[in-house]
User: Fold this.
Amino acid sequence: MTEDTISANLRLDLGSIEMRASFSVPRPQVTCLYGPSGSGKTTLLRCLAGFARAEGWLKVGDQLWQDH
Assistant:
């Protein structure tokens, strides 16, 4: 991983549904999320913003922003 990367490995249990996301994207590029309604796009963004607590980690560059 380099300074110009956003990386995450997250897992969130929502009862009967489990969200898992693992990715690494370059920055400051434009990255989009797409998928059908109810597929977890907003939930993932809430986890990245820290509004929802997911297990796993989020790194921006060399800084660890979340680690649960």
